[in-house]
Amino acid sequence: MNETIARLERDLSQAPTELDKACAASALAWELRLVDSVRAITLSDETAESLRSLLAQSSTLPQADQFNAQTALATCLRTKAWCVYRLADYDLAHRLIKDALLELNKTDDIEGEAHAYLILGNSAWQLGDYDEALDAFNACIERARQTENQRLEAEALGNIGLVYQNLSDYRASLTYHQRCLNIQFQINDKQGLARTHSNIGMAYFIIADYSSAMEYFHRSLILSQELGDVRSQAIAEGNIGDVYFNLGDDVSALDTYQKSLSLFENAGDQYGKACSLSKIGSVYDRLGDSQTALAFQTDALSLFRNIAYPAGEINALVAMGVLYERTGNFEAAKACFQDAAFLSHRIGDRYAEADALYHQGTLILSSNEATFLDYQDSILLLESARKLGEQIEARELIYKSHKALSEIYKRCGAFETALKHYEEFYRLRETVFNTESDKRLRSLQVVHQLEQTRRESNLFQKQAENLKQANEALSVVLLEMEQHKKNAEEANRFKSHLLSIAAHDLRNPLSTIVTITDFIQSILTSVKNGDSLSQLAEAESMLNLIHDSATRMFKLIAQILQSSQIDSGKLQLNCTLVDLYAIALSAVHENASQAERKEQQILFSGNPDLFANVDAECIREIFDNLISNAIKYSPQGKKIEVKIYHHQPPNNREKTIIFSVRDEGQGLTSDDMKKLFGKFERLSAKPTGGEPSTGLGLSIVKQLTELHGGKVWAESEGKNQGATFFVELPAYQAA
């Protein structure tokens, strides 16, 4: 996500024309919607204004540019609608997304249309228009399939499941949730899985299967935490709090609601924050702290009003009215119930209106100072509530209204009318109880369906996990095969180099030995025949040449065998506590004669008592190799600096020992640096005295250093600027 935003930021800053700039800005705004809604809205508004100005000059724009401008404008409107929806202004989001769809109809942006229909469905769903929501979600699915966007298809399927859940059609709801879940498992969409587990948990919650609900809510919470999705974590915590609340565990409910509130605040979700405040108020109400409960409900009401969410306002007003009634503030309670009834009537929520009228009508029953006129007003309110209840077939509300009317008529002395209402209350209550029994039976059927869904989901998840494990195992096998292939190729290259060495590096000294032995043989024949003994001195010189050639071959073969031993993992280190200063000093002395032959000067500096737990012979070889290389590749008369010293790495890491060799030779090119420590690599520098080179020395240095837990590197300012090689090894740490 951050990489995409960074790329789009660059595109925006480098855009050559106004249209290119606007197109880049619209794409950037769409990506920003997930991380910075406020900036996304601002950028969308500014870019939309610029695009409208460009489209107003459409007669001068090429057709392709007009098309790009229309698509970018639709993206801006879609982005703003998405952000406004997340901020819970559903009415504005609904209007904006319809404008975006009008613009999208002028383009061929099918995926853009899919996203727009998803937003349209979500806003219609929140506004209570379920038919429009279902049509929009199905339109989204159709376009998501055209563009093979499975993630979007799954989200739309899940949302259809939620609509049917609102409509109490649990069979259809479960079907769509299962289809959604299957796709999310296939594409490993953890964010989607978190959301769907939450939705299935809510289905269990509705039918009061709190154990299963808690299980799914916890799964959703864990997935959300793995993703770092703060808003989804807040929703999951709120759902878990609802389970605790319904189970009567007020302490756990309060703690969980407060976690949810904090997370919603961090996510900038005003709707979620308002809901959490209202839920916390409900807990304090049940704990008997009416004043604290009232304070939270008041804050919730203020937030619901700010985001223009009338359903939330109505619930908060009714809750506040009940609290005011309980504390004896009947005027404030009456005002809350009146506002709730008025608002419910305005938005057409007849159940909420009837409920508010019922609460207002029953206020008289809590007062000891009621007049006959007060009773008359209450009767009118309760009759209105009863009639609305009959229109929408809200039987529980109807029988509650009859019971309240019976009590009021009894207080007024109209016992006959009171009896009629009580009889109606009793009859309807029995009907409701029978209906509740039927509902409980249906709930058991739903539980069965949910259990079947759970089993299918777990089976599918297990199959998906098995497939994932199989893919991982296959990946491991493929990696091993690839490594075997590389090893085989490396072995072939090694074999080719060995053949080359056998053909050149070994042939030349062997040829010299054969030639010289033939010559010595002829000298010995002459001596036997009584010829001059002066040729014996020449023969002695020839023997020295044989010794040098044989030594060079021995060293070459030893290096090849050592490299092979390291590669095969057969080299065993014999580590003891040794002074690296002493080994470095010895290596300098051993190479001094070689340096003198080229009139070079070795300058050595260091601190004694540099102890390390190492294989002394291997370290001696590392030091000797680097010093002899410096001599080999440096011109006549140059200086070579050898240093060894303690080093304290940053971040309080343990001390190390650094050995360095600096020469004034041919330096290293950037290409040299890339292949510096590889086997048989030929660098740009050449031996200055005709010395031989196998191409294995630096490779062995690197391998031996790393076997000791150290590291080796080189630094050079470039060609003919000299080079410095460093070896860093762990120092001995005294207990």
Give, in spatial order, the strands making up the sheet with the most strands: 2-4-5-7-6
The CATH C-level class name of the domain at 576-730: Alpha Beta
Our measurement of the CA-to-CA distance between the termini, rounded to an integer number of angstroms, reads: 48 Å
Helix share, percent: over 70%
Q: Architecture of the domain at 576-730 in CATH?
A: 2-Layer Sandwich
Please state the overall shape, judged from the principal axes of the Cα atoms.
elongated
Please report the total strand number as a whole number.
7
Q: In the CATH hierarchy, what is the superfamily of the domain at 576-730? A: Histidine kinase-like ATPase, C-terminal domain
What characterizes the major β-sheet?
Answer: 5 strands, mixed
Let me know the average pLDDT. 82
Name the beta content range: 5-15%
| Structural class by secondary-structure content | mainly alpha
Rg (C-alpha, Å): 43 Å
Unreliable spans are: 498-504
Q: Write the CATH fold name of the domain at 576-730.
A: Heat Shock Protein 90
Helical stretch count? 28
